[in-house]
Amino acid sequence: MNIQIKRIYEPADAADGQRILVDRLWPRGIKKQDAELDGWPKALTPSNELRKWYHADPEQRWGEFQLRYQDELAEQQEAVQALKRLAQQGKVTLLTASKQQGHSHADVLKGILEQA
Description:
The protein is of the alpha/beta class. Helix content is 41%, strand content 12%. It has helices at residues 48-55, 58-74, 77-89, 105-114; strands at residues 3-7, 18-21, 92-96.
């Protein structure tokens, strides 16, 4: 599968393939018509409670966040499988406003999508 993560603030590119926003909240400063999205599956985003809990202390809570988010995604298998099928058909770019590359929910989601 060809899945990448990109900040939504970066310009859209033809090489992005399907552009999927994976944040629960709409990113500040981005107009919906300018985002060039192909999807916004809110069911695949961390719950508000989990998101707020994690952002209170991301460095200390990263490991536990991954487990909790994986548990939430386990309850959304239909949406996970739909996105996985999309990624099997071509390139998918997961878009997020997060600055924490390597330690964001998008990284966890990408890992799950890439599992066999």
